[in-house]
Amino acid sequence: MLPDGLAADRPARSDRAYVTLVTNADYARGARALVRSIVLSGTSADICVLHTDVADRDLIPLRALGARCVRCDLLPTTAAFNASHARDALHGRAAFTKGEKPPFHTPLDNFAKLRLWQLDYARVVFIDADALVLQNVDKLFDYPQFCAAPNVYESLADFHRMNSGVFTARPDRATFADMLAQLDVPGAFWRRTDQTFLQHYFPDWHGLPVFMNMLQYVWFAMPELWRWQDIRILHFQYEKPWQDHAKADRLRPLIELWQAHAGDGRVPDSRTLQDPA
Ligand code: UDP
Ligand code: MN
Fold this sequence. Notes:
This protein is α/β, with parallel strands linked by helices. It has one domain (6-272): Alpha-Beta Complex (Spore Coat Polysaccharide Biosynthesis Protein SpsA, Chain A). The chain has nine helices and eleven strands. It has helices at residues 25-40, 56-64, 79-84, 87-93, 107-110, 173-183, 193-201, 218-221, 252-262; strands at 7-8, 16-22, 46-51, 68-71, 123-127, 131-133, 147-150, 162-169, 206-207, 214-215, 233-235. An eight-stranded mixed sheet has the order 1-4-3-2-5-8-7-9, with helices on both faces. A three-stranded mixed sheet has the order 6-11-10. Helix 1 runs parallel beside helix 2 and helix 1 crosses helix 9 (252-262). The longest helix has 16 residues, at 25-40. It is globular and about 50 Å long.
């Protein structure tokens, strides 16, 4: 049973689900490619899209691929919390210096990820809507809460931080309530939103290999780490592959792979793609 405030368009098909989050049409576009990639990976788990009030026309392509859509609101955070995590306030106080966030990215929306702890599944693998599953990762359902990969895309120092684009979780209402109580405390500022919060909430997070959440900048910044054979989940952090952006030329093979998933045709076997020199 889902709690009040969450509404599903069909029952769950399994007690395990891949979950993503969509709060606007742009991320629905990303989610369609992600959902298709999960279907192509041959999973036995359910695929669930948590979404806020987005237009039905943006959800129809997700349902057509078999995804279960669960409507929710943003978290009931205070006005002070919302003001300090508003886009301009957050960018002003903790500027992004390594890459650009797209204009359709609203930092406050990220916190709605925490609603997955309210879902009616026993085990969840959360994946950002700007990612692709390139090889089956169903074994992650047998991993404990909380596993995530390090936020590696520039240097060894990156191993100190986790990336919240892929993680394992066990939905539980008491955990959700406890998270809300710790999230929205007077003066709280989570500079990288849910990511900073989750790293704080799970300080002893279990590390997944970087190949479970390979960040696109590794392609040009740490090419020796890139091996298509090993990459299970590819994550387009910062600029999105459906945007026109300044780094697009340097990321062309990755963008072409995303476009293949976003279309209806054949998708190449990523393991056969050419590694960077
Ligand atoms: N998201 C969303 N709407 C927003 C911001 C984020 O739906 O305005 C969701 C979406 O699933 C997205 C995830 O939250 O993939 C995290 O944001 P994003 O991937 O843009 O962050 P990045 O990976 O660049 O840090
Ligand atoms: Mn992302």
